[in-house]
Specification:
alpha+beta, GMP Synthetase, Chain A, domain 3, 3-stranded mixed sheet
Length: 97
């Protein structure tokens, strides 16, 4: 696991206490793209799935704001893009049925 991966994981676990947390470093799929050209970084793109009841009664935008605020430092310094899948336990269960 990479350094940024571990930082993301630690921050999310400590703050959100998720029931499910899946983090995928997909940076290798974006090497050479315009937004990352010239960046001397290996960890720039992440897909993150979080299932947590902290998202109950929160809109999709409110949920995203929680994550972007939590990872602000990493987004400012290293991460170029996040793909977020954010749901409550009930919503996640209904996706499976």
């Amino acid at each position: 696991m990479s350094i940024i991966y571990k930082v993301i994981e630690e921050k999310i676990i400590n703050k959100l206490k998720p029931d499910v947390l899946i983090i995928s470093d997909v940076s290798h799929l974006h090497k050479g793209h315009k937004g990352v050209l010239g960046m001397d970084l290996d960890e720039t793109h992440f897909d993150i799935k979080i299932v947590s009841d902290i998202f109950i009664n929160k809109s999709r935008i409110e949920r995203q704001r929680i994550i972007y605020k939590l990872l602000k430092k990493e987004l400012d310094e290293r991460i170029h893009a996040l793909s977020l899948d954010l749901s409550t336990v009930r919503e996640d269960e209904s996706k499976k049925n």
